Amino acid sequence: MDEVSVLTGEPKPYPSNLWTQALSPRTFPSGRVDVWRVRLDQSERIESAPDDRPTPTPSATVLSPDELARARRFHFEEDRSRFSRCRSALRSLLAEYLSIPAAEVRFEYQPNGKPQLATVQNQRALEFNVSHSGDLALIAVSSERRLGVDIEKIRADVDTVALAERFFSRRERAGLQALADHLRVPAFYACWTRKEAFLKATGSGLSFPLADFSVTTHPDQEPEIEEINGQPEAGKKWYLADLPAIAGYRAALALESDGPHPPIEARAWN
Ligand SMILES: CC(C)(COP(=O)(O)OP(=O)(O)OC[C@H]1O[C@@H](n2cnc3c(N)ncnc32)[C@H](O)[C@@H]1OP(=O)(O)O)[C@@H](O)C(=O)NCCC(=O)NCCS
Questions:
Q1: Ligand 1: centre distance to CA 205 (Å)
Q2: Is residue 47 predicted with pLDDT exceeding 80?
């Protein structure tokens, strides 16, 4: 059933309210954004996939030596496994888009750490971004436009006041404070994921001061960048979207776009 807004009773402005099960991309993502939801736990669904379809079990054998070394540096086995699963899922998906083997996908890193495809492999300007939290990862893929994605596992006991004080702009803090108590946690995560998705789209990480831009904070409000350095027009170069609800999580996507935005397809990979 569609989720409805607590304000208007209308369906929420998600690009789609469903995560469609899919094993691989149908076509190169020109003129659309694919957002893949990947389970990083040893999910029953991975083990119990119907016999007639291949099981997308991520395999660490596709990882590069530097990725394997990074995996080995995690102290806990659980973190090692989540990292490996996320990277191998990313490799498998990108390999499908590029029609090459997963082990041959090569990454380069921007100055603040954002991974991108090696230029030599990327004639068609494929863009992607990854986020993980808890047992889930999201992998957003498109072409030609910068994009960023963020997923956060919701903690009901999060100290919204202290974190907003530290990370949100004055305008966002005021928006949060004006809300009824029961909306504070959803609004906090709406604001956080929208903000983080934008930061990740730019690739700037924490070098972009978090107080220097504002997004809409109400969880049911249209996601938007309201201003960047006090300039409302600057925010219009970006499209923000909340992604379909996943119980216990909140997620958002940011896409470089100053005109009509391309369709967003939400797909469950495993
Ligand atoms: C990496 C960063 C951009 C996001 O970190 P995060 O929120 O902990 O993690 P996410 O799961 O959403 O994203 C991690 C993935 O983003 C990608 N990534 C790394 N650096 C990135 C960058 N500069 N820009 C965009 N994506 C980046 C990588 O694929 C990484 O996955 P990997 O660790 O498996 O390689 C981090 O440098 C950052 O800026 N954190 C800011 C957190 C914060 O204080 N936010 C305040 C509230 S808005």
A1: 7
A2: no
DSSP per-residue string spanning 16-30: -S--EE-SS-SS--T
Count the neighbouring beta carbons within 10 Å of the beta carbon of residue 47.
Answer: 9
Domains 20-146 and 151-257 alike in fold:
yes
| CA 79 to ligand 1 centroid distance, Å | 16
pLDDT digits (tens, 9 = 90+) for 212-254: 999 999 999 999 999 999 999 999 999 999 999 999 999 999 9
Which residues are near ligand 1 (CB < 6 Å)?
Answer: 83, 86, 112-115, 129-132, 148, 150, 167, 192, 195-196, 199-200, 203, 205-206, 210
> Any idea where the domains of the chain sit in the sequence?
20-146, 151-257
pTM of the entire structure? 0.90
Fold of 151-257: Ribosomal Protein L22; Chain A (3.90.470)
* CA dist., res. 110 & res. 112, Å (int): 6
Q: Which region, left, alpha or beta, applies to residue 205 given φ > 0 means left and ψ of -120 to 50 means alpha? A: left
Query: How much distance in Å is there from the Cα of 204 to the middle of ligand 1?
Result: 10
| Nearest CA owner, ligand 1 atom 36 | 205
* Domain 20-146, CATH homologous superfamily name and number: 4'-phosphopantetheinyl transferase domain (3.90.470.20)
